[in-house]
Amino acid sequence: MAMKRVAAFSAIRAFTSPSSSSVSSPNLTRHLHASPGSKKIVGVFYKANEYAALNPNFVGCVEGALGIRDWLESQGHQYIVTDDKEGLDSELEKHIPDLHVLISTPFHPAYVTAERIKKAKNLQLLLTAGIGSDHIDLNAAAAAGLTVAEITGSNVVSVAEDELMRILILVRNFLPGHHQVINGEWNVAGIAYRAYDLEGKTVGTIGAGRIGRLLLQRLKPFNCNLLYHDRLKMDPELENQIGAKFEEDLDTMLPKCDIIVVNTPLTDKTRGFFDKNRIAKCKKGVLIVNNARGALMDTQAVADACSSGQIGGYSGDVWYPQPAPKDHPWRYMPNQAMTPHISGTTIDGQLRYAAGVKDMLDRYFKGEDFPPQNYIVKEGKLASQYK
Amino acid sequence: MAMKRVAAFSAIRAFTSPSSSSVSSPNLTRHLHASPGSKKIVGVFYKANEYAALNPNFVGCVEGALGIRDWLESQGHQYIVTDDKEGLDSELEKHIPDLHVLISTPFHPAYVTAERIKKAKNLQLLLTAGIGSDHIDLNAAAAAGLTVAEITGSNVVSVAEDELMRILILVRNFLPGHHQVINGEWNVAGIAYRAYDLEGKTVGTIGAGRIGRLLLQRLKPFNCNLLYHDRLKMDPELENQIGAKFEEDLDTMLPKCDIIVVNTPLTDKTRGFFDKNRIAKCKKGVLIVNNARGALMDTQAVADACSSGQIGGYSGDVWYPQPAPKDHPWRYMPNQAMTPHISGTTIDGQLRYAAGVKDMLDRYFKGEDFPPQNYIVKEGKLASQYK
């Protein structure tokens, strides 16, 4: 039964489907919208293997292929799906010269470098199934006249919920207790001596975009002292409703916080911004949650601060690079509550971003504009948050 | 340094302190309030050992002794503190014949049976440092004219926060991802196939007392469908503010819920009420959170349902018995997110219940009434929630 479902979903279909022989029309000028005729669309997702068959709504994997294969193929398009994305011998690399559309996810990012863009003569559209397009060289994409779009809003609730979970796991010191259970132990003191309530603590978010605001809204009934740092102050009514206080200067906010949540996109300016010096500005024993991007942090500085106790706990689902290698120091540092990159790819999130990808492909085929908030690069210009 | 702090806090002081030689006045009639003179007070807490020295606010352990030793001894009372509570050879048992006050916690319960009550000729007052007095034979205590009181409200926020954490851990499938990290693995699919958002799910609480209500308030911004079962419907204004719908019949509510939270006290009526038949009434794959009492559940029925998949995940910090033996089936059942009994003994919670115990002892010495909501047994009568 399980094997049958895997077979039905299998990516192998991509390479044997009837439409795979249709040749796409050459398109050397990179129009923002589709030229008529068949398109070659490549999707890069993580492989689910034995897990693919366990949930019919598991569309975000190679096997699920966003649930759009029949729809694409019925319109004469070619749809290649793979998880093999790294290096010159990868499946993705083979299709770079003639693909029109590349779909990828932040959970298993297909890195789109300037070199790949140069090589991709037919490429018109880069879609992120989810949110976060920093795996794409956006300046190169803009210079090449490509359109880059993501499904804005598709995972904001997922990530905000996940952040609140991680805050609670760290503050309440959940993991040492769970490890006791599976190790046959019982030592309440070994948990309690550093377990706290969230109530009354100061929580600061670096970035109060959609995810940061959803987090703050969910934090409100916990009766914390809520702070946010962003480029702009919220309008007073919203700020009052959310109940958070604006901190114009990041380094002034940091020492006030018991808990810091990173909710800022990865850009050239923010890469590695949370380094040894920033960590030193935090309260001793600060708890940090980062579901934004691993490369915002100085990896080794975080590991060192967890060892010294300057950071009292670190949790997140983002790493640099991804997948995290076996020897990534965050796997082994004390008081970490890490997971692989998962927060935005819940089943609910997958269904939302699969629907968003389908909608944008449909608009692309019809030559229609996308929802404006989805554009990351349009007509050679980067969206403001990526500048 | 660590050793020094442990020594300063050490329980050994209890047996060598100057006041330990003072003999309490005989008190064979069990007055509800203190007779003049020195009292023998016994506290039963968990031992912290090496953890005692790591946090000056860690007052809930044997070593911390609720932080009331100096205060008690300065008034001429004798204060014995121990973690040794089981059997006829235990330290607690030695003091049963002449103690006046017994303080215990739900985290390391001193079981006060009818036999012990019979033997405790001087006993007047049983205090629970925290909430939950089911380790005491309340009917026997009432018949003997004892006063039983707890620090109502001292841990309600702690437990409600902890419940929300556990809901998120189960719904979002946190633990398999964390285990991947520490095992050097990376398999997003192995997490994602059964990870969901909390948003949009139906959450039902069995019991909507203080903890249940605080949980519902914290759940509100998650945009769930909230249900509650209790003996009484909330008043309409409160119900509307909390945003939960009353379910008069438990067995009608169960099949509606994606997530069930148990928030009902353990009584003769509720013991084992969540048995095989009740579990069968739930939605397949239901997630259950129980921070109330382990004995509310049929232990083996829960383990069997986790194995069969009828229960999709079970999390809680309460077991029967406590400490959970090494072979307790909940340690080894699939999809459990268990910890030892911890949710109400955060550092914040400890400071609140230590202050509550001190306040009630002070009132007891002065012959004053306690805050009315704290009484569990008063003048031979049980509080309504324990009837």
Total helix count of chain A? 15
Rough shape of chain A?
Answer: globular
Number of domains of chain A: 2
CATH class of the largest domain in chain A: Alpha Beta
- Topology order of chain A in helix (H) and strand (E) letters: HHEHEHEHEHEHHHEHEHEHEHEHEHEE
Helical amount of chain A: 25-40%
Query: What is the fold named in CATH at topology level of the largest domain in chain A?
Result: Rossmann fold
Distance between the termini of chain A: 49 Å
What's the story with the biggest beta sheet of chain A?
Answer: 7 strands, mixed
Give a count of the beta strands of chain A, DSSP E runs of length 2 or more: 13
Q: Largest interface: which pair?
A: A-B, 72 and 72 residues
Gyration radius of chain A (Cα, Å) is 22 Å
- What structural class do you assign from the helix and strand content of chain A? alpha/beta
CATH homology group of the largest domain in chain A: NAD(P)-binding Rossmann-like Domain
Strand content of chain A: 5-15%
Q: Which spans of chain A have pLDDT < 50 for at least 5 consecutive residues?
A: 1-29
What is the residue-averaged pLDDT of chain A? 91
Instruction: Note the quaternary state here.
Output: homodimer
Q: Which strand order does the major sheet of chain A show?
A: 2-1-3-4-5-12-13
CATH architecture of the largest domain in chain A: 3-Layer(aba) Sandwich
